[in-house]
Amino acid sequence: MTGFDALFHWIFAPYAQYAPWEIAIEATAVFFGIWSVVLARKNHIGVYPTGIVSTGIYMYVTVSVGLYADGFINLYYTLMSIYGWYAWTHVAQHEAERPITQLTPRAWRWVLYAFIGLFMAFYTGLTEFTDSNVAWADATTTSLAFIAMALMARRHLEHWYFWLATNVISIPLYLYKELALTSFQFMVFTYLAYTGWRSWLMLIKPQPK
Fold first, then answer.
1. pTM (2 decimals)?
2. What DSSP string describes the chain?
3. What is the pLDDT of residues 151-178, one digit of tens each?
4. Which candidate in 20, 128, 142, 159 could, as Cys together with 73 as Cys, close a disulfide (CB 3.0–4.6 Å)?
């Protein structure tokens, strides 16, 4: 067995223990998840309905492998997608859609405080009330994603920074949890988040001083 074959076997061998419907469920979530981020990169409102399908499925998938905070964040994604869908379409009459904006220095401080508070809350909850063996990583990705989704719903450019951090950490986390398809999804997400940031940067409107 070559090194590549050994790597391939290590990544995908765990799927031998899954039923075909379990693999199909994860694959469906991955498909709609990637589609959702592609639409986000294009600044298309379809990011929300496609995202709802993916996150709805991942509520089950993540909890089934012991990623309890990620299960919660997928519930949050679903609720925030509904809110974001509403926020994007209910804007002032003179605007076609809510403009893309950037965070002020003061807003950045509040975002930092929010991350610290969220991390402490999730980490404490995971260590005190669950059998999680990846509490640090689960709490970190969940806190980052929590903020990313809120900033995305308000159409702040900086939400892409938080998605990039979430995605990079999630790649090895999901490999460790033997969900290679989802790990691959986060690899794609990392690329799409970078290109999405570049696309949104070109669309941003100058803000009044």
1. 0.80
2. --HHHHHHHHHHGGGGGS-HHHHHHHHHHHHHHHHHHHHHHTT-TTHHHHHHHHHHHHHHHHHHTT-HHHHHHHHHHHHHHHHHHHHHHS--TT-SSPPPB---HHHHHHHHHHHHHHHHHHHHHHHHHS--S-HHHHHHHHHHHHHHHHHHHTTBTTHHHHHHHHHHHHHHHHHHTT-HHHHHHHHHHHHHHHHHHHHHHHHPPPPP-
3. 987 889 999 999 999 999 999 999 999 8
4. 142
